[in-house]
Amino acid sequence: MHLPFPDTSVKTNPISEEYYYQLPERVAYKTYPFYMPGKEPKGYYEWLRKQEPEIIFNPTDLKTDSDWIKAGEIIYDLPINSQVMDSAFLALLPDLGKHWSKGGYPTTPEGVLPFLSIVVREKGRIEMGLGSCGTCHTKVMPDGEVLKGGQGNFEARKFNTSLLRIEYKKLPDSVLRIRVKSIIDRVFAAPWISHENQVRVQNMSVDEWINNLDVSVGVFNRPGTSFGYPVSVPDLFNVKDRKYFDRTGQLSQHDIGDLMRYSALNQGINLLHDYNGFTPSPRPADPKKSTIMRYTDEQLFALANYIYALKPPKNPIIYPRALLSKGEVIFKEQGCVTCHTPPLYSNNKLTPVDDFVPPKDHFKKYNIFDISVGTDPVLALYTRKGTGYYKVPSLVGAWNRTAFLHGGNLANLEDLFDPKRLQPDYTPTGYMPPWLTHMAVPGHPFGMELSEKDKGALVAFIKSL
Questions:
Q1: Buried b (16+ CB within 10 A) or exposed e, 333-370
Q2: What mean pLDDT, rounded, does the chain reach?
Q3: What span, in angstroms and rounded, lies between the C-alpha atoms of 266 and 27?
Q4: CA distance 335 to 371
Q5: Angle between helices 65-76 and 297-309 (to 10 degrees)
Q6: Nearest Cα residue to 295 out of 72, 130, 64
Q7: Residues 6+ apart with CB under 8 A from 432
Q8: I need a labelling partner for 168 at 20 to 30 A (CA). Which of 289, 332, 356, 360 fits?
Q9: How far apart are CA 382 and CA 311, in angstroms?
Q10: What is this structure's pTM?
């Protein structure tokens, strides 16, 4: 399932099966909506404190496929981290709400932030639920509709840093530096890699760390990436048809069991991997004492079935038939179908990055399209997610995305065909490392020589998929 690193001397050594099954299990307690501060019903938090804890996932009750799918939505929204909402925290909510409402935190018409939740695991104690699948893979549409499985439009990292600033005010500098170092290790560290991204992150001050973590909508500094080289968040539609997970194709999918494993790994378990002696998060000798918990197999099966059932919405914009026909012709003439092959509009292959030569045995093991499209190689070569490849993304649902290319450097599909982005004085419309004021967005140079009219037809066709 796991592709090797470009540096094959580095081995991924996961925890054993025996260790894994001794880790504490996650319990799915009933959750409640989290409102933008000031939008909650009167007396809401007092009412929540009176609620009894309620476990809402019981596999013995699941009899049909639809039962499993419905239960999978519970696990999709199940928070894996939490922030205690004591009286001191509640007192800070009005000020936090002013900060959050400035942008990047879209709500439903009722004022609900659907990326978060409130969980009651003990009567009288309420907690803000964080880190569910839905935190990154939920989108609030312009009309306030909640689209689960979409490329998320919640700036999760910016939200987390707002909470960190509160916590860090309470800590002495010596403790603070240790805390920040542990977070850096969990998210970014790969000490076997010699690259400026590792040097930069290890030498950052605490203030630089906190102030520079913000990323743009649709982009996330997920564990295993690198500071300045995050990933654009994928949507979760048509996952059943995908052969590889992650932008770098780090994990392959043969059946639903692989999706279950991937879900377990990327909700904390991969932090316990040993990479030639380096472990991102401490691995206790006694797994029962681990702060990293695991899903039950039944929870993972339900979650995977729910993800498989997610379907992309149609673009509400109806383009003229003649325009779409012309765009389809251009799509074929430009050779887009070679990589973005119908009906998934992806050939489900991996493309090597510049400076990586696939070993001969890879052509027997993996689906490789042996042509580099020239995009930035850092994520693929110099991070824990590295494989030497990027996978060819599906264009289905591209109309509803706001972060393009693997690093989310472009906010609009139209920007992909703008030759100006190849110039060093270009200002990206999407994510840009915080230490830069401009940069080229290299690679994927296709369609740039088309006339503006033909580009418009091509974009319309892609947005119709």
A1: eeebeebbbeebbbbbbbbbbeebebeeebeeebbbbe
A2: 93
A3: 18
A4: 13
A5: 100
A6: 72
A7: 409, 438, 439
A8: 289
A9: 34
A10: 0.94
Q: Which helix (H) or strand (E) holds 81?
A: strand 81-84
Over residues 192-239, the pLDDT tens digits come to 998 988 888 878 777 777 777 767 789 988 899 998 899 999 999 999
- Band (380; pLDDT cuts 50, 70, 90): very high
Query: Does the CA dihedral 75-80-83-84 come out positive or negative?
Result: positive
In angstroms, the CA 280 to CA 182 distance is 8
Q: What is the pLDDT of residue 182?
A: 84
Cis peptide before 343 (omega within 30 of 0): yes
CA distance 167 to 293: 23
More confident residue, 173 or 119: 119
**How many angstroms separate the CA atoms of 380 and 378, rounded?**
5
Q: Residues of the chain with pLDDT > 70: what percent?
A: 99
The token pair at 58 is: 């019981």
The position carrying tokens 């400035």 is 102
Helix (H, G, I), strand (E, B) or coil at 227: coil
Q: Find out whether the peptide bond into 41 is cis, omega within 30 degrees of 0.
A: no
Identify whether the C-beta of residue 134 lies closer than 8 Å to the C-beta of residue 201.
no
Q: How confident is the model at residue 155 (pLDDT cuts 50, 70, 90)?
A: confident
Q: pLDDT digits over 389-410, tens only?
A: 999 999 999 999 999 999 999 9
Q: 35 pairs with which residues across the strands?
A: 112
How far is Cα 175 from Cα 180, in angstroms, rounded to an integer? 9
Token pair for 258: 């692989």
| Domain definitions of the chain by residue range | 12-309, 321-348+392-463
> Can you give the length of the chain in residues?
465
Q: Give the span between the Cα atoms of 149 and 308, in whole angstroms.
A: 10
| Residue listed under structure tokens 């892609």 | 462
Tell me the fold of 321-348+392-463.
Cytochrome Bc1 Complex; Chain D, domain 2 (1.10.760)
Give the closest residue to 319 by CA, choosing from 418, 194, 126, 463. 463
Is-contact 431 407, C-beta < 8 A? Answer: yes
Residue in this structure with the two tokens 């997920």, named with its chain if needed? 222
* CB 3 within 8 Å of CB 251: yes
Helix crossing, 87-100 with 156-168: angle to 10°?
A: 140
Residues 6+ apart with CB under 8 A from 36: 97, 100, 101, 105, 107, 111, 112, 113
At 325, give phi and psi (nearest 5°).
-65, -45
